[in-house]
Structure of Cytochrome c:
Amino acid sequence: MSFSWIFRRRTLGGAAAAGLGGALAALALAWRPVIAPIPVPPPSSFSTDQVARGATLADIGDCSVCHTAEGGRPLAGGRPLATPFGVLYSDNLTPDPDTGIGHWSPEAFKRAMKDGIGRDGAHLYPALPYEHFTHVTDADLDALYAFLMTRQPVHAEAPANRLIPPLGFRPLLAGWKLLFLHKGPVPFDPSHSAEWNRGAYLTEGFAHCGACHTPRNLAGGEEGSRAYGGGVAEGWRATALDASNPAARAWTRDALYTYLATGISPDHSAAAGPMGPVIKGLSTAPEADVRAIATYIASKMLGREAAEPSPTLIDNTAAAAKAYTAGATLFAGACAGCHSQGAPMLGQGRPSLSLASNLGDGDPTSAIQDLLQGIEPPVAGRGPKMPGFADSLTDAQVAEVLAYIRARYTNRPAWPGLEKAVRVTRKEGAEP
């Protein structure tokens, strides 16, 4: 037996031992204990005030939006969420003992919200934005728990997730959390008002605005260095909420409050897409909390207000019609009745298209979605309604209309590759 053979065998053995040790260390890192089930707590065990406070936090946090399937019972889960990594289905948050959280203790609930760990010890996917909920207080989580535990139990099993292999292996999430789950309270900033600090707590915590309005890296983590620089939400472009915000008129605190409370700002535009349900929740939240959120977000956009307080409305009708003849014709037939100067419906809470943030954005995604899917008032009886044209306009026609509208109502350069962008957006809108 040669010395080299013995050396190789020892080297391979050492490598195998090191690999096994690394695997065991990784499993130890990922392992979390099961928290024992409890009897389903009776609704009478929670105070009326605590339940009411939890209801408010649930509205601010949009819980029912993600945890209610189309046509399903409120908070019973099963709603699909398309991600770059596959499709996830939301969990049942009702106190059903078999398919919901009926047997979860307050400790199990708080661990899920702050650490992303289920009662059974399994890692939860960050579609549950525990990146943000980890910053909220235990008292507020107890109130949210009280609200959920007093809902009507619904027996509803969520469908199995459909993820790209090996992402269905939940222990991998332990490594993701080491990189992207940053715990700790939202710092109180004494240089700002109490209202601003309340807004910071709500925005960074329950409202989790950065989950949509911040770019994400290839691993799905928020890019902290570009916080509120714009992101993606359910196939829509989530507009930047920093100084790069593309609105024609700078957002003020009061304009933001009006928009968040009603879904429309006369100096900007109307809420559409995923913002609709957000507005619906905030419309029932306490005015002080909504104003606090508006105050905090407005401070993120500082730098624009002094530069562009109130620009002149733009309408390059002749030049746009010459450049995009087909788009001008389509606009006259489908859009002019509501959006052209002098249109009878233009003054009924319908801002000029020159003020629409989506038209000024460098990314056409949300403008495309507006035209394909239309706009529904998020709060009954408030704001304009626009039909969708997905079934009546081809990709080429949608691109023509949008190219014309962009040229007519903004001074921004044309969107490149617009027809392809329409085709991709339409396809993504049809998923999952």
About this structure: Confidence is low (pLDDT under 50) at residues 1-26. The domain at 317-429 is CATH 1.10.760.10 (Cytochrome Bc1 Complex; Chain D, domain 2). The chain has three domains: 43-180, 194-300, 317-429. The chain is about 45% helix and 5% strand.
